[in-house]
Amino acid sequence: MQGKITGIDITKNQITAVQVKTGLKGYQVLACARVSVEDGGIDEALESLSGSIVLKSDTYLATIPGDRVSFRNLSMPFKDVKKIRQALPFEMESLLPFQVEDLLIDFIMTDSPSRGEVLAASCNRGFISEYLGTLQQNGFDPDVLEIKCSSLASWLLRQPGTPDHILLLEIGEKDNTMVLCLNRRIALIRVFSANNASIVQSIPKDNETSALEGPPPEEVDACFNLLCATIRNTVHAFASERNTLPDPDKLFFTGIGALYPKAEEVLSQSLDMPAERIDMSNDNRIRMGADIVKDWSPALMNGALSLALRNTRKEEGFNFRREEFERKKRYFGLKKAAPKVAVFLFLILSFLAADMVIDFYTLKKEYKILTREITSVFKQTLPEVSRIVDPVQQLRVKIKELKQSNVSRPETGTNKRVLDLLKEISQRIPKSLNVHINRMVIDTETVRISGKTDAFNEVDKIKNNLETSIHFSGVTISSANLDRTGKGVRFEIRIELKR
Q: What's the fold here for domain 4-330?
């Protein structure tokens, strides 16, 4: 996702929103806000939220209250996700006290896809329609309707150092949500209705170290112990349905109950495992300005921030915006991006045009240089031609004329071309002889050769070899004399050509 993204985490008691902007280095938190859900309900709270901060975004994501969703763990005979989605309603029909046609069902794989184990979540279609309509009326049209804590669990599992088997707990005012993750996958989600008033009343108010009129510590501990007993029983029941399951190595907790100062100590002792508060601002890819840090409350805003960081393009988590509620394709984002795209295209076209102009002038310059060089060669080759129109074509014509002229072959009356005569003479002179030809004259009837060799007998060998040619009628040594040094013989041979 690109641009601004707003995650809206909705519970019975409060609505929290966090807006982020994506970038190359991660995410920048632009705004965060929290409003209480009073007697006016979620509609009034959403209206108040939309006016509290600038939340206009390119993408919205929202959660569905956990008490509205029913969860079932199933083992499917299929491995293919499409087949599982088609068969899931029939598998759940006998497990739910509702008509399956009235339910919208989504699922995630809880183990490797080869085993076909899924966690299915179902929600009433009528509720989703009403819930989505309320969001849209207040200016929020979410791309994703997610289940509470699912995106936070996915974020935790992506963090380095997180154990493979963990428990995630969100302690709310009236609901507690537990997520069991095994082998770095969400395996179980359960929502417990609870009265956590004693925990909430024990949370220190602003600028206080402890609640002044809170319930006694024994009552708060009893509330935590009851919560932990429910968690232990739920995990035990889930494990008893399977042969072997690893125990969770660590508890991560958040929610308003995480504001209780001794929550970490109490939870760790009661569940017999390390416990740690979640603060997503510690993620190196998340940046916050000073104005955001002063309003940031990790226990209350982790859920909304994890939702804003959820990847909508991947099959990550749940999404009840499907079938008749599927998000329609949006074009306002394209309209918003149109000016930037136009500028980008203009720059590209400008660079292309500049490149073409540069190439044109470069080629034109090279063409002029080559034309001058061709003209210079033409003048050197054919100095008698004064009128130059097309030097290349004129040279071609002249070469053709030369090939057909008497320079290329003897006068009429012989069918021996000059090149053929040279080849014949060259082949008749032994390569072992040291012969230097100084002059050769060819006419229609004779060939006269003047040259130099080492001895008189070599002149005789040349004559005798030439006489064997069927193309020559006679070979005569016109002269053979010692040269001035006395170390060589200068000779002249006359060859008669056969007609």
A: Nucleotidyltransferase; domain 5 (3.30.420)
